[in-house]
Amino acid sequence: MARDICAFPRDLRSVAWIVSNHERIDQEFRNIHRTEESKVLQYHPHGVLLERADPETRDPDEPEVSLYIGAHWSRVHETQTEEDIKQVLLSLGANMKDLDIQSTSDAE
User: Which residues pair with 66 in a beta bridge?
Assistant: First the structure.
C-alpha cells in the first residue's frame, strides 16, 4: 500500500499561504528530504505537489488546495517525510495550527 502525506489548510488564509509559498516549500523539501532505504531510494529526489480540488466535485468542507507528498510504501519513510514537511513548513513561517497534516496510514 502506498503511504502518502497530505497537508490540508484549515482556512482561507492558509489556502492563500500554501499557494503563494508552494515553490519555496517544494524547493526546501527537496533540499532536506533524503533516504537511505534501498526500496525507496530510486524515487528520490522528489518534491511536494500542490493539488487543487475540482470545483465542480469538491465537497464544501474540503479545502480548495492541499499539499501532497508520496512516501513510497514504507512506514519508516512515511514518518521521515512527515517530519521533513513539518520542518519545512515551520521554517517558512507556517502557522501549524492552521494546517492539518495527515498520512494515509492514519486512515488504516
Answer: 51
Maximum mean pLDDT: which of 21-30, 51-60, 69-78, 97-106: 21-30
Instruction: Report the C-alpha dihedral over residues 55, 58, 64, 65, rounded to 10 degrees.
Output: -110
CB atoms within 10 A of CB 61: 5
Residue 20 C-alpha cell reads as 503563494
Packed helices 12-32 and 75-91: angle between N→C axes, nearest 10 degrees = 120
CATH number of the domain to which 94 belongs: 3.30.70
To which H or E segment does residue 69 belong? strand 65-70
Q: How many domains does the chain have?
A: 1
Confidence class for position 37, pLDDT limits 50, 70, 90: low
- Domain limits at 74? 4-107
Q: Give me the pLDDT at residue 2, please.
A: 67
